[in-house]
Structures are given as C-alpha cells and as structure tokens.
Amino acid sequence: MKKRSVYGWILMLVSMVMIGAALPRGAAAGPGLLRYANFPPAPTFPCVQMERWKVEVEKRTGGKVRIQTFPGGTLLDAKAMMDGVIAGQADIGCLSMAYQPGRFVLTNALSLPLDIPDARSGSLVLWDIYDAYQPESFAKVKVLTMFTTAPANIMSKTPVRTLADLKGLDLRASGGAAQILKAWGANQVGMPMSGTPEALQKGVVQGLFSSLEVMKDLKFAEICRYVTMTETVIYPFAVVMNLDAWNALPRDVQEVMDALRVEQAEWTGTYMDAHVEESMAWSTKEHGVEVISLAPEEKAQWDARLSPIIAKWVEDAKAKGLPAEAIIRDIRARLAERAAK
Ligand code: 3IO
C-alpha cells in the first residue's frame, strides 16, 4: 500500500468536511427522528400545542417516530419558518401567517375583521377553508394542522378608551391585525411575537394587539396594566412538514398524523380559549389589570373604520386569481353554522 503524503491526508480531511457540509440537514436526524421548530418561548400556546402533538404521535405510533422539539427559535426563527422547512433545515415548523401576509393571501382571509368569536371556531373554520381551497402557498409542504388565536385585543401601558387615546400610540401587531390597528389610527409597529417582550421592556412599543393569553405566558401583565376589548380579528397559524421527510414516513405513521389534523386544530383552539380566561383572571388578580369595554357609540366608530379592509382584500385576492368573494361568503357561512350548533 502506497504511503499517503501529508498533503494527501489534508486533502482527504478537507473533502470529508465538505461532503459532510453538503449533506442535507434532514439526514443528520437519523431514521425515525423528526425535528420540530417553533419560534416563541416554550410556555406560549404554539409550543404547548407542539408538545401535545409530539406526545400523541409518539404514543399512537408505538414509538416508531420520535419528535425532538425546538422552542424559542433555536432551530428556525419566526420569519424563516416556511422556507426553512421547505429546505429541510427542520422537518416540521410552526408558523404565524401574519409574519408573511403576502405569502398566505388565501388563508389570511381569516385575519380580516370577520368577528370570529373564539379560537375553537376560528381553528376549525381555518382548517375547512384550507382543505376546501388547497391554497398554492402550501403546495411545497405537507400541512399537519392549522389553528388560530382567540380574538386580539389591545394590551397597553396607558389606558385606551377612545380612538383619540389610540391615535399615534406605538403598538406592536402583524399581518391582518396590523392593518386593523392602522385603520384605527395607532402607530403600528410590525414584528413577530418573539421580539415583543424586549420591545416592550425597552419602550420601543407601548403595547401590543394580540390574543390575551400572552398577558400571563409572557408576563405582559407586569408591564401592560390596561386591556381594551375589541374582539375583531384573530391570527392564523399553520404547522408544516418538509415533503421529503413526509414521503419517507411509513404509511401507518402518515395515517396517525393525518388523523390528528382536525383533532389538533380543535384541541389547540379549545386550549387557547380556556387559557385566555385563566390568563385574564391571573392578570386582574395578580397585577390589577384594568379591562376596558368600549361604549356602544365608541365601538360603532371603531367598526366604521374597518369597512374598507375586506373590500381591499377582495380586490387584491381577485387580482391574484382567487375566488375572493366566494371565500369570504364561505368563511361567514361556516362561522354562522358553527354558532348555530
Ligand atoms: C402568538 C405568537 C406567539 C406566541 C404567542 C402568541 N399569542 C398570539 C400570537 C399571535 C401572533 O402570531 C402574534 O404575533 O401576535
């Protein structure tokens, strides 16, 4: 055998490192292990539903797959979620559609001011709309479930009782909720929920517009002593899986995950609705948070500002070739049907 020169060894080492770097990250997880990325901190609802899904899948597949969870943006951050999963940097990812609103036009119809009453109804109707229209924006992934938050409300350092109080106030929101905040005259600041604790702490924003379970989960009640009830809009979410990772799963594992799609939507919505109650009970008791309801005359003025928003979405969605009016009618009909039950 020919003795290898020092340069030969170096060359071999360098090529081994290069081959290692070129391998798809998915391959590193090993058979049966799936890496699930999430952007906010572990105590928040997107991560609570992630842990529940993990436990159910591992149990129902008899341990055939194991799920490794990555909360807090440790594998993929908020805005990188969709592309990161498509590229295989994570096998599964949880995303808030509000962070790339132009990308999820069809399903973001759910984040119009449609008065979705709670997270359970919102989650089930969002799933129905996804399933009925099969939006192109999700064609490159396998959708494992979808869900929504409970209605967004204003959490702020100073009381907001009127449109005048809101005018020019720096409040954090994203996507459909951000459009609504702008229409009310606030100075809307766009950023994912994951950046909000620091922005509030540093005084970059004076509050936020989102669902109220974060008052407890992210301890916003310590900073935001006022909540103004608006109950107009929700944030839609999706959990997506890399297509190669999905196709590599045994049939019976795929069946377990498919069976969980609607069940997980309903579980998450139900958890969210109950958790908002718990969060507000804690916030008022522990931090003396004041809950402000708008007087009917005041509420009428807020609502009047929102009328152009749906029309604008219809115009944009139609320009993109979507059956926009039918989608809105469909969402309203499905909500009415659920409310009647
Ligand atoms: C949300 C996102 C991450 C953690 C908890 C949360 N509660 C409500 C949301 C909705 C959302 O995406 C947002 O940015 O307000």
Secondary structure blueprint with pairings:
Blueprint: H1 6-22, H2 25-28, E1 33-37, H3 45-60, E2 66-70, H4 81-87, E3 92-96, H5 119-133, E4 141-148, E5 153-156, H6 163-166, E6 170-172, H7 175-183, E7 187-189, H8 196-202, E8 207-210, H9 214-217, E9 226-229, E10 236-242, H10 243-247, H11 251-287, E11 290-293, H12 296-304, H13 307-319, H14 324-340
Parallel strand pairs: 1-2, 1-3, 6-7, 6-8, 9-11
Antiparallel strand pairs: 3-10, 4-10, 5-8, 5-9
3-(1H-indol-3-yl)-2-oxopropanoic acid binds at residues 40, 44-46, 96, 98, 149, 174, 192-193, 210-211, 214, 235.
Characterization of this structure:
- The chain has 341 residues and is α/β, with parallel strands linked by helices.
- It has a single domain (29-151, 226-341), classed as Bacterial extracellular solute-binding protein, family 7 (D-Maltodextrin-Binding Protein, domain 2, 3-Layer(aba) Sandwich).
- It is 48% helix and 15% strand.
- The chain has helices spanning 6-22, 25-28, 45-60, 81-87, 119-133, 163-166, 175-183, 196-202, 214-217, 243-247, 251-287, 296-304, 307-319, 324-340, and strands at 33-37, 66-70, 92-96, 141-148, 153-156, 170-172, 187-189, 207-210, 226-229, 236-242, 290-293.
- The strands form 2 sheets. The chain has a 6-stranded mixed β-sheet, covered by helices on one side. A 5-stranded mixed β-sheet has the order 2-1-3-10-4.
- The model is unreliable at 17-28 (pLDDT under 50).
- The structure holds 3-(1H-indol-3-yl)-2-oxopropanoic acid (3IO).
- 3-(1H-indol-3-yl)-2-oxopropanoic acid (3IO) binds at residues 40, 44-46, 96, 98, 149, 174, 192-193, 210-211, 214, 235.
